[in-house]
Amino acid sequence: MRKRKVLFLGRPYTMAAGICLLLTALSSIASAGWQLVIDGPNEVQAGELVILSARQVHTDLFCDVNGDCSNMSAMPDSTIPKPPVKTQLVWQVLPDDPPANRHRICDDGRTLVFASREVGCYHFVLAAGDGDTLQMVTHTLFNLGERQTPVPLPPPDPQPEPEPQPLPEPPREFQNLTDWVAQKTMSLVTSDYFVREKAALVESLTEITTRIRHNEIPTAERARVEMRVLTRKKLDAVSRRSTAAWLAWETELARQLTQLEREGKLETLDQVRQAFDAIADGLLACEPTPKGGR
Question: E-strand spans in the chain?
Answer without folding.
Answer: 34-39, 43-44, 50-58, 88-94, 103-106, 111-114, 120-129, 134-143
